[in-house]
From TrEMBL:
This is Agmatine/peptidylarginine deiminase. InterPro entries: Peptidyl-Arg-deiminase_porph, TAT_signal. The keyword Hydrolase applies. Residues 68-92 are annotated as: Disordered. The keyword Nucleotidyltransferase does not apply. PROSITE patterns: TAT (PS51318). It comes from the Bacteria. It comes from Streptacidiphilus cavernicola.
Amino acid sequence: MNDQTEPGNDSSDLSAPSDLSALSADERILVQARAQALGRRNFLVAAGLTTVGVVWAASSGTGQVARAATPRAVTDPCTSPTPTPTGGTGAGTFVVPLDSVPHTRTWMAWPDSKAIYSGQLAGLQANIALIANTIARYEPVFILANSASAAAARKACTASGVTVISTIPVDDCWMRDSGPVFRANGAGGLDTVGLNFNGWGNHQTHANDALVASRVAAYLGLPFTAAGLVSEGGAIEADGVGTLMATKSSIIDPKRNPGMTQAQLEAAMCAAYGASKVIWFTGISGQDITNDHVDATSRFLGTGTGLVQTPNPADPADIWSNDENQQYGVLSTATTALGGAISVTKLQAPDYNKIRATSVDFVDSYANYYVCNGAVISAQFGDKTADANAKAVLTRLFPGRTIEQLNIDNLGNQGGGIHCVTQPQPVP
């Protein structure tokens, strides 16, 4: 998630299957569209493309079509909370849980592209290593690295709990967006969903990152399903019991999901996440590569509880502060899929005049924290008052967990935060 002009797209590894005769006309159109399309304030991003019900083979790691389920007609959004299809081993509905459930490990990726990051690469790598080494004090970390940079990743990620994997190539470090979304069924079953990463609407080269989700699933030997829409993990927040939230700007996007209606996208989101309701925020288009991912502003804490980062009164009003206020207003008056009200905690942003960073595109998101086993990994920006308040709020919201506050300014300068570069693998 770089604020600069992105390199050209590369979709050479993402060809459509040669034999589409077994698919319906609608399926053929969408599968072919996937092959053609695949080729961040300037924040995070990631996406992908596929048909509803088309399953991509995890075992091969190549993105070939394994089989196609008959697409259901989309009428009302989220008509069923059951993902289609699931390949898990246990009985029950597969759902994407909150980050705060127990983890087996955290997945990350090592950036090494000078074409994307130029002279800022070393600083970004240092922040990735800091995050990985910090999380590794609480749970194992698996970090993907290209073979040419695996030794550098191992040298930087010195914690004993970090394992560098050099057999799954990557283009960038935004694992929340490109990695698999893990689902559990509460009966010992675990599977994965891919959100069809397409370089945030073809804004960045992504030939390797488009395949990361299926390749991680294959590495783990887990079933893999391609979702029925193009999106990113940072674009969809789940409470684990039926409710999702997202910005319209990052989902109802012609560069991600051309021709799909809001109702169709809701149905695909709910099927992928095991949910039955979507809370929509308007969002912001054209100002960052992600089109305003929700995880920079609004998060679920549990059933009927949420958090929204709100503007610092010392900063002048702008489109971002208006967006924060709008998200707070919507979430605090919304209800969950179970019908209950949502209690929303405000987390005040830092004062831009008191933080270390000077870029107007710097992402100053406290809300982009990551919850791991026994800790919350969060950012601090140099505004001592706001940093202390953020730590106090997170301490109250996550009792029993250590609040780690890290200087990740290099990551923020690239348009992302800690949540953007981490992907949790829950305990089944």
